[in-house]
Amino acid sequence: MRLRAVTREDLPRYTGWIADPEVRRYLNFYRPMTLEEEARWFERMAGDESQTVFAIETVDGGRHIGTVGLHGLHSRYRSAEAGIFIGEKEFWGHGYGTEAMRLLLAFAFDQLNLHRVYLHVHGGNARARRSYEKCGFVEEGVLRQAVFKDGDYHDVTVMSVLRDEYLDSGKGDQ
After folding, report:
1. Residues contacting 166, CB < 8 A, separation 6+
2. Edge-to-edge, what's the strand order for the sheet holding 152-162?
3. On the CB side of 4, how many CA atoms lie within 13 Å of its CA?
4. SS3 assignment, position 158
5. What is the spatial distance between Cα 22 and Cα 27, in angstroms, rounded to a whole number?
6. Each residue's pLDDT tens digit, 101-140
7. Could you tell me whether strands 64-74 and 79-86 are parallel, antiparallel, or unpaired per DSSP bridges?
8. 93: Cβ–Cβ under 8 A, 6 or more apart, which residues?
């Protein structure tokens, strides 16, 4: 798989993915987005140096299956928040998200020289948590009942990986 720039041609796929309640279950999206809303997001993202977002694409066939990115890039603290989702459900559970996150971490640590990458994982999202742990993320703490979704409050776990941990674990060599 590879990471590439998000293009305007990708936007209809994003609206389709986010329209699916199963896809957005653990995301911070509470409702489907229109193509116009996605276009506004794309324009904001293009002019925002505090975030870098990539399309996740398969090498065989060049199929766009999801997105991964760094948000809130902080140059002084050399940190950023990672985010990811695989929108094509047939690719769930096959390691694509783990590989995309590893590519993102290599970019974060090798190209951007970041010190810390963190993320938030919603309670109940065991598949994502296992994937993050494979990439070297460790739990920092739990934000209790921090998210209200599907009629109930859910905990959110904060996880991170530091540059030295990532490099020392050999995750950067995979």
Report:
1. 105, 109, 136, 172
2. 2-5, 52-57, 64-74, 79-86, 116-122, 152-162, 138-149
3. 13
4. strand
5. 10
6. 999 999 999 999 999 999 999 988 999 999 999 999 999 9
7. antiparallel
8. 127
pTM over 0.70: yes
Q: What is the pLDDT of residues 139-168, one digit of tens each?
A: 999 999 999 988 899 999 999 999 999 988
Task: Give the position of tokens 């199929």.
Answer: 63
Q: How many residues does the chain have?
A: 174
**Burial readout 59-96 (b: 16 or more C-beta within 10 A, e: otherwise):** eeeeebbbbbbbeebeeeebbbbbbbbbbbeebeeeeb
